[in-house]
From TrEMBL, chain A:
Pfam families found in the cross-reference section: ETF
All copies of domain Electron transfer flavoprotein alpha/beta-subunit N-terminal, residue ranges: 23-211
GO term, biological process aspect, one: fatty acid beta-oxidation using acyl-CoA dehydrogenase
UniProt keyword NADP present: no
Function: The electron transfer flavoprotein serves as a specific electron acceptor for other dehydrogenases. It transfers the electrons to the main respiratory chain via ETF-ubiquinone oxidoreductase (ETF dehydrogenase).
Family according to the record: Belongs to the ETF beta-subunit/FixA family.
Key words of the record: Electron transport, Transport
Cofactor dependency: AMP
Subunit and partners: Heterodimer of an alpha and a beta subunit.
Organism: Methylotenera versatilis (strain 301)
Keyword Chloroplast tagged: no
Protein name: Electron transfer flavoprotein subunit beta
Gene Ontology molecular functions: electron transfer activity
From TrEMBL, chain B:
Co-factor note (free text): Binds 1 FAD per dimer.
Family recorded in the similarity comment: Belongs to the ETF alpha-subunit/FixB family.
The organism of origin for this protein: Methylotenera versatilis (strain 301)
Name of protein: Electron transfer flavoprotein subunit alpha
Coiled-coil residue spans: none
An example Gene Ontology biological process: fatty acid beta-oxidation using acyl-CoA dehydrogenase
Domain of life: Bacteria
Gene3D superfamilies assigned to the protein according to its UniProt record, in alphabetical order: HUPs, TPP-binding domain
Keyword NADP among record annotations: no
Length: 250, 310
């Protein structure tokens, strides 16, 4: 079986992004970028399924500019068999991403598609569900375990207050939670080898998808930051401070 | 203009977040309908009907909605969506699962986790784990969004809406519900607790997490929370993780015990009224967001603090 994994290029999760002086957008010029952490879990899971002999091919796909080659190289270095870049200059919103991924699904016909449960830049968490809807496939979102037997995948999902287990007929769309697995380290020789591997590039315009932004960005701003308070020296002092707030402690 | 709210419930109890969604919906000054989909959830429909500001409850009752799947909720919502200009829900794992599916079926954009509604089609939401606020405008005819519960006051009771039954599309069939595990606890629910005691990886083991933090939480009537590092290490269950990818809390008092204060964690606790941090590293980032910081070994001061509270 073939597995398609979506990998997004995002600002490294350790970096605190700044906004442009005119408040028009975030300033990510020259900032360290990398693969969206949840997408790394998605890819890791696909690779493990291949190592178990369940999957035969793992294809990584990223949407964006030629700069996205770095996350695809990373994916190849982790062990993906092939990489596809859908080149689009536009800032893609989840619905457009889902539509582009749908057209890749039509070409590749994977049995399983795994995405991250959310991208850590926009924190939207929509793309997987949208893709499942467009394909009329079942969905298993926020997956923390995944088991394939025959043409069915059993997924345990992280939900508010616990977990839920679903069985989905393949083909299906899964979105990965961080707890799904621990992504492997990429070894330097693998990264060197991945540099030589081809990346198939498709121009988004050829896919006949309307990429118009539905949401307009009006402005960005800094949230009000909590200001640091005071340090207390003892438990006693802490308690007396807390008791000075009406009703907090008795 | 009409507004439809997707209600979350467990067939017995309406989720308190529906009250917050009703308040958010009042922004449009238009009739508000609530969709209650379930299996014999009549009591829930009644509860929804009694919320002040709700005009109609659309009740969908079917066997296959007992443990509703996103696929079935989405097709039901789409089937009744005609005539609604705004579709919204509280931002929870239930609506996060279903609403993007509705958006794609209706070919409209979705706006996740709205903090503030500025105008009929203009919203504030955060990106980058809460580090940046964006104001965005939707160009779609139908507005589809989830709202950040704690930013909207809960609508009060006192309403008396009509309850109407609705036709239900056939079940999706390609997905089926197998089982669920809901954590049982005598403690208050994390998302709505007045006091939260949160522990980090520094607790060192599941046993110590329980031994050190439980007595304090018990005395304070507090919910327990945890960092992802603590969850990953197996010290705490996943559903008490606070943060960007966990639960967002807004208690009166948040006590962070041996928590470093990574942005992904502080995202989840930033709406707390008062934050106390106990950490042995005076430079830990958590102190930058704490009202009261105590630089100390948690194993010394938590028992002391617990003992000092009546
Ligand atoms: C209102 C609004 C306005 C925006 N305006 C701008 C703007 O002006 N400028 C700008 O730069 N951006 C803008 N964006 C950002 C753009 O929408 C996102 O970068 C993109 O749509 C993906 O959304 P997400 O990251 O939130 O997806 P999610 O739904 O959170 O992503 C889930 C998963 O989908 C997959 N995925 C998502 N995107 C890709 C991708 N490109 N390639 C491969 N896999 C992918 C990944 O597996 C990911 O883990 C805007 C977004 C919104 C909501
Ligand atoms: C995509 C992504 C999403 C994430 N989402 C979340 C999320 O939702 N929630 C979340 O919490 N994290 C999240 N994280 C992880 C986050 O980045 C941090 O790694 C995590 O919050 C750190 O947890 P911690 O403070 O318990 O552990 P550590 O970073 O190990 O910090 C332990 C702290 O305890 C202190 N300490 C140690 N011993 C003692 C002692 N005896 N007494 C007092 N203090 C002591 C130390 O000084 C240190 O500050 C996410 C990460 C990523 C990449």
């Amino acid at each position: 079986m073939k597995i398609l994994v979506a990998v997004k290029r995002v600002v490294d999760y350790n970096i605190k992004v700044r906004i442009k002086a005119d408040g028009s957008d975030v300033d990510i010029e020259g900032v360290k970028m990398g693969i969206n952490p949840f997408d790394e879990n998605a890819l890791e899971e696909a690779l493990r399924l291949k190592e178990k002999g369940i999957a035969t091919e793992v294809v990584a796909v990223s949407l964006g500019t030629s700069a996205n080659q770095d996350v695809l190289r990373h994916s190849l270095a982790m062990g993906a068999d092939r990489a596809i870049l859908i080149e689009a200059s536009a800032d893609l919103q989840p619905l457009a991403v889902a539509k582009l991924l749908k057209s890749i699904v039509a070409r590749e016909e994977p049995n399983l598609i795994i995405l991250g449960k959310q991208a850590i830049d926009d924190d939207a968490g929509q793309t997987g569900q949208m893709l499942a809807a467009l394909l009329d496939y079942p969905q298993g979102t926020f997956a923390s375990t995944l088991q394939i037997e025959g043409d069915e995948v059993t997924v345990t999902r992280e939900v508010d207050g616990g977990t839920e287990t679903l069985a989905l007929a393949l083909p299906a769309v899964i979105t990965a939670d961080l707890r799904l697995n621990e992504p492997r380290f990429v070894k330097l020789p693998n990264l060197m080898m991945a540099r030589k591997k081809p990346i198939e590039t498709i121009n988004a315009a050829e896919l006949g998808v309307n990429l118009d932004a539905r949401l307009k960005l009006i402005q960005v701003s800094e949230p009000a930051v909590r200001k640091a308070g005071i340090k207390v020296d003892s438990v006693e002092e802490l308690l007396s401070k807390l008791r000075s707030h009406e009703g907090i402690l008795v | 203009m009409k507004i439809l709210i997707l209600a979350e419930h467990d067939d017995l109890q309406l989720s308190p977040s529906v009250h917050q969604a009703v308040t958010a919906a009042q922004f449009w000054n238009s009739p508000v309908h609530v969709l209650v989909a379930g299996n014999h959830a009549d009591a829930v429909a009644q509860q929804a009907a009694s919320i002040d500001g709700v005009e109609r409850v659309v009740h969908a009752n079917a066997d296959h909605l007992a443990h509703p799947l996103a696929e079935d909720i989405a097709s039901l919502l789409v089937s009744i969506s005609e005539g609604y200009d705004v579709i919204l829900a509280a931002h929870s794992s239930f609506s996060k699962n279903a609403l993007p599916r509705v958006a794609a079926m209706l070919d409209i954009a979705m706006i996740s986790d709205v903090l503030e509604i500025k105008a009929d089609n203009t919203y504030v939401r955060s990106i980058y784990a809460g580090n940046v606020l964006t104001t965005i405008q939707s160009t779609d005819a139908v507005q589809l969004l989830t709202v950040h519960g704690s930013n909207f006051a809960a609508a009060s009771l006192g309403g008396n809406a009509e309850i109407v039954n609705t036709e239900i599309p056939a079940s999706f069939k390609k997905a089926s519900w197998k089982s669920e595990v809901r954590s049982q606890s005598d403690r208050p629910a994390l998302g709505s607790a007045k006091i939260v005691v949160s522990g980090g990886r520094s607790l060192g083991s599941a046993e110590k997490f329980e031994q050190v933090l439980s007595p304090l939480a018990y005395k304070l009537g507090a919910a327990l929370g945890a960092t992802r590092a603590a969850v990953d290490a197996g010290y705490a269950p996943n559903d008490i993780q606070v943060g960007q990818t966990g639960v967002v809390v807004a208690p009166e008092l948040y006590i962070a015990v041996g928590v470093s204060g990574a942005i992904q964690h502080t995202y989840g606790m930033r709406d707390s009224k008062i934050v106390v941090a106990i950490n042995q590293d005076p430079d830990a980032p958590i102190f930058q967001v704490a009202d009261y910081g105590l630089v100390a070994d948690l194993f010394d001061v938590i028992p002391e603090l617990t003992a000092a509270i009546q």
